[in-house]
Amino acid sequence: MLIDLKGKTVLVTGASSGIGRQIAIELGAAGAAVAVHYNLHEDEAIELAAETGNGSKAFKADLGIAQAAGDLFDTVVEEYGQVDVLVNNAGIFEPCPVESPKEEWLESWNRTLAVNLTSTGILCRAAINHFVEKGGGRIVNIASRAAFRGETRDYLAYAASKGGMVSLSRSIARSFGKKGVKSFVIAPGFVRTPMAEAVIDEEVVVRTELALGEMTTPGDIAPLVVLMASGKLDHATGSTVDINAGSYMR
Ligand SMILES: NC(=O)c1ccc[n+]([C@@H]2O[C@H](COP(=O)([O-])OP(=O)(O)OC[C@H]3O[C@@H](n4cnc5c(N)ncnc54)[C@H](OP(=O)(O)O)[C@@H]3O)[C@@H](O)[C@H]2O)c1
Description:
This protein has helices at 18-29, 42-52, 66-80, 102-134, 146-149, 156-176, 194-197, 202-208, 222-230; strands at residues 9-12, 33-38, 57-60, 85-88, 137-142, 181-188, 240-243. By secondary structure, the protein is of the alpha/beta class. It has one domain (9-243): Rossmann fold. The chain has a seven-stranded parallel sheet with strand order 3-2-1-4-5-6-7, with helices on both faces. β2 (33-38), α2 and β3 form a beta-alpha-beta unit. The longest helix has 33 residues, at 102-134. It is globular. It starts with 8 loop residues before the first strand and ends in a 7-residue tail after the last strand.
């Protein structure tokens, strides 16, 4: 199957690292211009945009700030004239035990919801309006196994944010399909990236959690994003694909 994304513009949030980085590389290899979003890792994003080619460029925004999320979409549209696909991938995974002081817990909850869910909502809103006006477009939301299985005790906010992404995505698919807007979710289990490496022992995870004998990598996620972006999966709009090495089967 040949996938040609030449002439398409894709905004990938959190493309400076891990899963987002690989998504940008593979979209670029399929011919897309990628708006490589980053927050702190500017050098990595600029380098990646150059490597991705097709007119790809780096765009900074702190997605913990609502205004910045809204501005990001507008800036990318201004730069390219249009966006065809939005990939909401940026996210944080920070522990916040229920035993923490109330203010600390709430700060962490709000930070997690702001980056993982509110920014996704803001970007989806902007994308829906843009897509309806231009006759269609696609959204891919990178959620998590945690949305369905739940997460461990210190990551309640993370699981809640990812559950929110799933219901948001389904609502978009139901409501705007006839206007040409398609919306998909990918729900990874642990993936070998800086986020997972900070909290897991890979050998233990493979031995105790996975059906497969090896850890999932960003290269196991990115091809599906390319397929979703291409339109070849449009009749799966609203659906979620689990990529978790058989660690959790719904
Ligand atoms: N790795 C896993 O095991 C796993 C499992 C399930 C789901 N996921 C999901 O997959 C997505 C990517 O995760 P990853 O493992 O690739 O993580 P990662 O390597 O830690 O990368 C996270 C990305 O999000 C960006 N980001 C973080 N905070 C931000 C903020 N305040 N504003 C804007 N951007 C921000 C980072 O940008 P800068 O570095 O430039 O600041 C970076 O590009 C996340 O949504 C995560 O929840 C990951």
